[in-house]
Design goal:
The protein is an alpha/beta fold. Helix content is about 55%, strand content about 10%. It has helices at about 5-15, 40-55, 60-70, 80-90, 140-155, 165-170, 175-190, 190-205, 210-220, 225-235, 245-255, 260-270, 275-290, 290-305, 310-320, 325-340, 345-355, 380-390, and strands at about 25, 30, 95-105, 115-125, 130, 135-140. Strands 1, 2, 3, 4, 5 and 6 form a six-stranded mixed sheet that branches. It is elongated. Residues about 5-10 and about 10-20 have low confidence and may be disordered.
């Protein structure tokens, strides 16, 4: 898809909601007597959510549906009627709703306990519901059962796509059930310390299970512990739907600890598949420390995507000033001041441009002024990309 088309589409998307083309996966109802198993309903929903997101679908996150449940007075994990499912879908303005139930039969020998999962996909545009999708087996094989259910759900959500079942299942890890439980309990925990404890245990139990690694990266990111965060983000697997997002944050972590080569590599990896403005901007920031001329190209790509953003204007002006293009740089700094008249750095650099003062290596007042973006918005891009590819 041409970048000019991406830019126009993203600008349009910023003015209108995209939720009407979204899907939502509801927590599966727990039909067992043991309410301590509610986490399984969340686990099934989370895995389907991640599988659908990984295929480029825009899927509403858990906070969206939690708010809808609260507004409608619906208890999570309770058995839902079709009317309730429609009501939730309408509340969230979703096209598709995935929902279902599970039931665990406990055995004296825990390894022999069984589970049956039933799922349906409701298309609210056509008012059509799929046949019941059923998976059953040993409870300890929950991850494998979820993976098969994910594939069958995707077939319903993407009827025109040619999904290879073996290829899909091959890239899905067979996660230990105890690691899966700790991970989901971490997602559900409200206390950050409890989240950290659950995610750490999940990562310890299954080294190949990368979702808790992503969450631990975010935990340390929130603490500004960039070295620790980077170690966790690096463990996120390429098959994980958060892989690009993990590399976006990894790039910022590496930038913050002055490993600019590693930061540049991380941002380049993301930009190769998701050419977002914030990615090009941060790529330019990493390049700025080694090659301002190379950085300018990245900054201009970010600016092309959103000329209203003062940070993109500033970074382009900063790189232009660094390379001696004083008049063009001055235009960019004026554009910053049109939006943020009190921006002291833009005022100072505009003055230097007007005086034709070149950059002086080592000058603490003008070194390292490039501006980083910390918000990553991939979902809208992937949905728009899917729309244009279909057209």
């Amino acid at each position: 898809m041409p970048r000019s088309l991406i830019v126009s589409a993203l600008l349009l998307a910023s003015l209108s909601s995209l939720s009407a083309a979204s899907s939502v996966v509801l927590p599966f109802s727990n039909l067992s007597q043991d309410k301590n198993l509610d986490w399984i309903g969340e686990s099934i929903a989370e895995m389907i959510h991640d599988a659908a997101s990984g295929e480029g679908l825009l899927v509403l996150d858990r906070s969206d549906r939690t708010e809808a449940y609260t507004r409608l007075g619906i208890r999570p994990y309770a058995l839902l009627t079709r009317a309730s499912v429609v009501k939730i879908g309408d509340e969230l303005d979703a096209y598709h709703v995935v929902y279902g139930s599970f039931e665990v039969t406990r055995q004296t020998a825990p390894a022999k306990s069984t589970i049956i999962i039933r799922a349906r996909v409701l298309d609210l545009r056509r008012l059509r519901q799929s046949d019941e999708l059923t998976e059953s087996g040993l409870l300890e094989d929950l991850a494998a059962l979820q993976n098969r259910l994910c594939y069958r759900t995707l077939v319903e959500l993407l009827p025109d796509a040619r999904l290879d079942e073996q290829a899909f299942l091959a890239k899905r890890t067979r996660t230990r059930i105890d690691a899966l439980e700790y991970y989901v309990r971490g997602l559900l925990a409200a206390d950050p310390a409890a989240k950290h404890r659950f995610f750490t245990q999940a990562a310890r139990l299954d080294a190949n299970f990368s979702p808790p690694c992503f969450q631990l990266g975010l935990y340390h990111w929130d603490q500004d512990a960039f070295r620790e965060a980077a170690l966790w983000f690096q463990r996120v697997r390429p098959t994980d739907p958060h892989y690009r997002e993990a590399n976006f944050y990894l790039g910022i972590c590496k930038y913050r600890v002055a490993d600019y080569t590693a930061a540049e590599q991380a941002f380049e990896l993301v930009a190769s598949t998701v050419p977002l403005n914030e990615v090009y901007n941060n790529l330019g920031a990493a390049q700025m420390r080694r090659n301002p001329s190379l950085a300018l190209d990245s900054f201009l790509k970010a600016l092309e995507g959103d000329q209203s953003d003062p940070d993109y204007q500033f970074n382009a002006g900063y790189a232009l000033w660094k390379t001696g293009s004083f008049d063009v740089a001055a235009e960019r700094f004026r554009a910053v001041l049109d939006r943020v008249p009190s921006d002291e750095q833009a005022i100072s650099l505009l003055g230097r441009c007007l005086k034709k003062e070149p950059a002086r290596p080592g000058d603490a007042r003008t070194e390292g002024l490039e501006r980083i973006k910390e918000q990553y918005q991939e979902a809208a891009f992937l949905q728009l990309k899917s729309i244009f590819e279909k057209k």
